[in-house]
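Hi,

I'm pasting everything inline rather than attaching a file, because the server keeps stripping attachments. The sequence lines come first, and each chain or strand is labelled.
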Amino acid sequence: MVMRIIFNGREEELPEEIPLGDYLAAKGYRNELLVVQHNGQIYRPGEWQRLIIKPGDQLDVLHFVGGG
Amino acid sequence: MERLIIGGREITSRLFLGTGKFSSYRLIPEIIARTGIQVVTVALRRVDPGKQEDDMLAYIPGDCILMPNTSGARNAEEAIRIARLARAMGCGDWVKIEVINDNRYLLPDNEETIRATAVLAREGFIVLPYMNPDLTAGRKLVDAGAAAVMPLGSPIGTNRGFKTRELVQIMIDEIKCPIIVDAGLGRPSEAAEAMEIGAAAVLVNTAIATAGDPLSMADAFSLAVRAGRQAHLAGPGEVSALARASSPLTGFLD
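And the predicted assembly:
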């Protein structure tokens, strides 16, 4: 059974519920200075491993870039 | 020189820096060290896998005031969402509201900007809205709780200069809140002109970031902003249509 989530605005399929930290590490993200918005809540890197991704979750990985 | 206070903070440099388009983020701390710039804008973006760049915040000294912008927002709700996110990410209370739904000229939507300003000011944000120069909209922004109002000099990123001078002058004359000219200033002389007519500050990005030597150009803007401010305080002399002799025309050649 696959589960669907919305990751950075796009639908993705996952085989099972997994910790957010493992999911992001598998995608190749480096932890530092990133923040994740999970169903509208902000999570910093130290909190990622405690958070388990569930079906229907909405995730956005965010950081600050140059801008005027 | 007179002090500029915004959101309870004394602002020592009246040149605000936008951080987009620099060839390297490493230039940003160098520019800040050279010029004493204090207010710095940043933008919030999604990061896709494999496309993680350096985080801008790592390059901005801790004593700067971070002003995240709401670029990408097409209406008040989106701007509010971005502002709340930026604050939750530890960016502080300052926010530059930018609501744009015109992709050709990137001109801001004053009506949505006023709505977003009202909501965010009530939530304790120090709101600096980017806007089309207009006295009525400026007054509404102040009533909505804006800490300063930021009319554009010309469209974003164009380096076309201070094309909105007449309208901005009216805003400066009629609105008590600090007026900061944001966007379009392309040369230090144009920044000086804005300061001469009484702007409280200017926000410059493209003109510095795309200069041949950004560090030197930032320095030039910084000097121009100080010169313009000093000239404003000095009180420029009257302009007249006819010549008025600067030397005495004594009659010894008659």
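Chain B is about 35% helix and 15% strand.

If the labels don't parse on your end, tell me and I'll reformat.
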